[in-house]
Amino acid sequence: MEVKNCRGCGRLYNYVGGGNYRNLCPDCISKLEDKFQEVKRYIEDNRVANIKQIADDCDVSPKQIEQWVREERLVFSDDSPIAIFCQSCGAPIKSGKYCSNCKETVSDQLSQLYGTKPIEQKTKRTATAKMRFLDK
Fold first, then answer.
1. pTM of the full predicted structure?
2. Interacting residues of 71 by C-beta distance below 8 A, sequence separation 6+
């Protein structure tokens, strides 16, 4: 295991890896998850609140709320005034990183890429090619 400093509180902790919250100790992760649940309840009760109002009332940074929206942990309804912007074209979206048009474009590009002829191997194997072992 690796020992790191928590970027939230500064304490040392054993870093296990993975997860949504990088470089945070288990205590800070727990506190942040509690804040997430509080924000989620607040949004359910106040559907017309904007990000600044949510951040002020729940004592969370607007950047953290945007991160939860980009991770698709928070999704706003179509009638909500809240919107973030597509990272590719800048169109307003309610959740995720990209708008549906950009997702479709990337999907089409990937399908064209994988729909093409596969890359041939550079070396041709002959019938006499065998696996070799080193003697000890």
1. 0.70
2. 20
Instruction: Tell how far CA 16 is from the center of its chain.
Output: 19
| Angle of helix 51-58 versus helix 26-45 axis, rounded to 10 | 130
Which of the 8 DSSP states describes residue 126? P
Q: Which helix (H) or strand (E) holds 93?
A: strand 92-93
User: Within 13 Å of residue 94, how many CA atoms lie on the same side as its CB?
Assistant: 7
Q: Give the β-pairing of 12-15 and 2-5.
A: antiparallel
pLDDT in tens, 28-62: 999 999 999 999 999 989 888 888 999 999 999 99
Phi-psi region of 69 (alpha: psi -120 to 50; beta: other; left: phi over 0): alpha
3: which residues sit within 8 A by CB, 6+ positions away?
12, 13, 14, 15
By three-state DSSP, how is residue 103 classified? helix
Tokens describing residue 78? 């179509």
- Print burial letters for 29-43: b (CB count within 10 Å at least 16), e (below 16): beebeebbeebeeeb
